[in-house]
Design a protein that fits this description.
This protein is α/β, with parallel strands linked by helices and about 270 residues long. The chain has a single domain (about 5-265), classed as Alpha-Beta Barrel (TIM Barrel), CATH 3.20.20.140. It is built from nine helices and eight strands. Strands 1-2-3-4-5-6-7-8 form an eight-stranded parallel beta sheet. Helix 1 (about 30-40) packs across helix 8. The longest helix has 16 residues, at about 250-265. The radius of gyration is 17 Å and the shape is globular. It starts with a strand and ends in a 6-residue tail after the last helix.
């Protein structure tokens, strides 16, 4: 089974935010070592906001490891010069699309104040997916999908609030499930263990994951970790899905654990 992590970070400086490991750097060497130990074949880098140089790091490592690392990258959405970057975006090593988080001061209004209006049609025309940290504005993403039906969208972190666990973390689940009707909308099942305070295999959130699977299906649900903020080793993040969800058929595991993601973002991996 091809196992591809839909979300990881690399950095060489800065102060990691939230629950991410409070370490000065997390290199490709560190990442690949842990991937090997956890049985993970490949991963998609999301350059983190706390390191201004993380985009360059991602490009270099994707160039060095094309069958193991790819990228969903970012640029300043409020900079008019960014508009000229879209057409040539995928010509960069390993670059397969975009990912925007809205974590810096002043960015939280970008999805609703018109700042992003230009990027939706531009990405659709370029055939590039956009991943979004969208837990606070899921209905807005539905409006985007209505207006741009050819645009591939990916919802980060199961559409959850990163600071919540157990039932409070899933309060907006109906908003997420309502988006499944848009066939160009997918969801990353990244960070699942972090939304439970229970021990492995985090059984108190299995029903929520089942509901998401029932709504989106295995072709639009992508396993992943955001490993540097997980409360458990990579191996347990894997086996939670491959061994602890009895309602997942083998053919569905193949899709969820990597194949569906590769198909969605256009990553032609062997295996």
């Amino acid at each position: 089974m091809l196992i591809v992590d839909a979300q990881v970070h690399l950095w060489g400086s800065g102060s990691p935010t939230g629950a991410h490991r409070k370490i000065a750097s997390f290199s490709a060497e560190d990442l690949l070592k842990e991937m090997d130990e956890g049985g993970v074949d490949a991963a998609v880098i999301h350059p983190p906001s706390w390191d201004p140089g993380s985009g360059d790091i991602a490009l270099e490592e994707a160039k060095q490891h094309p069958n193991r690392l790819a990228i969903l990258g970012k640029f300043p959405l409020d900079d008019p010069k960014s508009k000229s970057l879209v057409d040539g975006w995928s010509k960069q090593p390993g670059m397969l699309g975009f990912r925007f988080t809205f974590l810096q001061p002043g960015q939280e209004t970008w999805p609703t104040d018109g700042t992003m209006d230009w990027v939706w049609p531009a990405a659709a025309q370029a055939g590039l997916p956009i991943a979004l940290m969208a837990s606070k504005f899921l209905p807005v993403v539905g409006q985007v999908a209505e207006k741009h039906p050819d645009l591939k969208l990916i919802l980060d972190d199961i559409g959850r609030f990163c600071t919540a666990t157990d039932a409070p973390a899933w309060e907006n689940l109906p908003e997420l499930l309502a988006l499944a009707k848009y066939l160009k909308m997918a969801v990353k099942a990244t960070g699942a263990p972090s939304y439970s305070s229970a021990p492995y295999p985090f059984k108190n959130i299995h029903d929520y994951i089942h509901q998401i699977y029932d709504s989106f299906g295995p072709s639009r649900m992508f396993w992943g970790t955001d490993i540097t903020r997980m409360p458990c080793p990579w191996k347990q993040c894997v086996t939670m899905f491959t061994e602890e969800l009895p309602w997942l058929a083998e053919k569905d595991k193949e899709l969820i654990m990597g194949r569906a993601l590769c198909d969605w973002i256009g990553w032609d991996l062997p295996g």
